[in-house]
Amino acid sequence: MKLIGLLSLTAWLTALLMVLPASTMAGGLEVAADSATGGPGRFAVEEIRREADARGLARGTPDDGSGSVAIRIELTVDRNGPAKPQSYRIEVRNKDGRRVIAVRGADAVGAMYGGLDVAEAIRTGTIDSLADSEHAPHFAQRGIKFNIPLDLRTPTYSEPSDAAQANIPEMWSIDFWREMLDDMARHRYNVLTLWSLHPFPSIVKVPEFPSVALDDVWRTKVKLDANFSPQGRDFVRPEMLADYEVVRRMTIDEKIRFWREVMQLAKDRGIDVYWFTWNIFLFGAEGKDGITSDKTAPRTIEYFRASVRETIRTYPLLAGIGITAGEAMEPEELKGMSKEKWLWLTYGEGVRDGLKDTPNRTFRLIHRFHMTGLSEIRNNFAELPCALDLSFKYAVAHMYSVPNPGMIRPVLPLLNPQLRSWLTVRNDDIYSFRWADVDFARAFIKAIPGEDKIAGFYIGPDGYVWGRDFLTKSELIEQAG
Fold first, then answer.
1. SS3 content of the chain, % helix, strand, coil (to 5)
2. pLDDT tens digit string along 398-429?
């Protein structure tokens, strides 16, 4: 099974262009990256070499003395060059009888993106036409919204589906994440947001609540029906827990090592990782260590606060956390406490605790502008020790409806360079028919307001999982490429 395509259009264009010939590459190629390019530079070098090998291009090394190298590719970080993060320039020169393609990145990620441009030129047979150019991102943050089915006991909003159930083992496969992150980097996505109703029992140990952390990975064997609550309250039914299978044996310590490795793979591809929650769900925790269904009980609030703290401490590469003043937060459940007050006491204080020993750490809290008000957010999160962004459902859940959604217009006057919003670009309409229209996509991107108000976007569905494709028949996938 293959991954669901991140950009169908790019895949089809690549397939068409692969038939183009290469001419000057017959003499061989060498590629080098300076140490400042780090993990992203190494990834770009691997991509260049992979494409060169795929086209039968001989590889030389800088010191082999063969003199047969026709093209030399250099990846460097130029602190005096392009100033905007992720930007780069490509310089092409002829020197000592060979072509030198120099990629000068403003940072390691910029150098990687320039290297990926070169890899694509090799793949499409256009390396001869590569010329001097400068590049900078239109939006600094370009992400994927990924509803992650971690475990029967810690579900996501896409859980009651065949796609989610089939993908539970994949979420604990490092091969899956390497392939996913490789594809994201190739398509210039640099943010991965992982969305779960309640991820903490599957990803972290909390000393004050030792019984909550979950070993192993479970999946129900019960046939799912179409009667699950759209609010997610019954996503873990007693009969599902009574009839389950263990799809992977893992201790919580092994799970932590696993997610640290995933985040390192992401960092080496210029990708930031965030965890998002919808609130307030206690799947996997209720009934343990004094935690009850009472959402305002001191013990419940202590649990969430400690879980956020330990998540931040456990994962130094975690870029941030996203929260929602949303589901399962009815007034009768909060007993007079406001949603924003609850979120501050749990997530806000948890972030403050988690960053206490590392005050200079770059970290971001993304508060979804959903079922709440801006003044309430500001009043309750005034003492947050890190960056605070908002997040808005840009086209609600219908990204294919119109190229210029108007729902954000009343929000724009509230935004400024000090308080920007991310855009949730949801696709809840088209899961199986994956099409692409370059004109629609271009118009959609151009209609997004500028970076003085918009921090970035993440694109993805609810009700489906962008993991392995278990919908299309294998032989048809293979025929398509």
1. 35, 20, 45
2. 999 999 999 999 999 999 999 999 999 998 88
Per-residue DSSP letter, 286: T
pLDDT digits 0-9 by tens, 34-80: 999 999 999 999 999 999 999 988 666 554 454 467 899 999 999 88
User: Per-residue pLDDT averaged across 3-30, rounded?
Assistant: 45
Give the burial class of 187: count Cβ atoms within 10 A of its Cβ; 0-12 exposed, 13-18 middle, 19 or more buried.
middle
Q: Which tokens go with 165?
A: 């159930």
Q: Is the confidence at residue 15, as pLDDT, over 50?
A: no
Q: Are 462 and 397 in contact (CB under 8 A)?
A: yes
Write the burial class of residue 446 (CB in 10 Å: 0-12 exposed, 13-18 middle, 19+ buried): exposed
Compute the radius of gyration of the chain from its Cα atoms.
Answer: 24
Question: In whole angstroms, what is the distance from residue 326 CA to residue 347 CA?
Answer: 14
Give the pairing of strands 217-220 and 244-248: antiparallel
Q: Name the residue among 380, 385, 317, 323 with its Cα closest to residue 352.
A: 385
Please give the pLDDT value at position 276. Answer: 98
Q: What angle do CA 4, 8, 14 make, to 5 degrees?
A: 115
User: Nearest Cα to 157, choosing from 377, 328, 305?
Assistant: 328
Q: How far apart, in whole angstroms, are the C-alpha atoms of residue 463 and residue 127?
A: 42
Which of 104-113, 295-304, 360-369, 428-437 has the weakest average pLDDT? 428-437
End-to-end CA distance of the chain: 12
Structural domains present in the chain? 8-135 (3.30.379.10), 141-480 (3.20.20)
Q: Which of 217, 223, 221, 185 is nearest to 203 (CA)?
A: 217
188: left (phi over 0), alpha (psi -120 to 50) or beta: left
306-340 pLDDT, tens digit per residue, is: 999 999 999 999 999 999 999 999 999 999 999 99
Position 475 confidence tier, pLDDT thresholds 50, 70, 90? low
CA distance linking residue 227 with residue 172, whole number of Å: 28
Strand order in the sheet with 29-33: 29-33, 71-77, 98-105, 88-95, 133-135
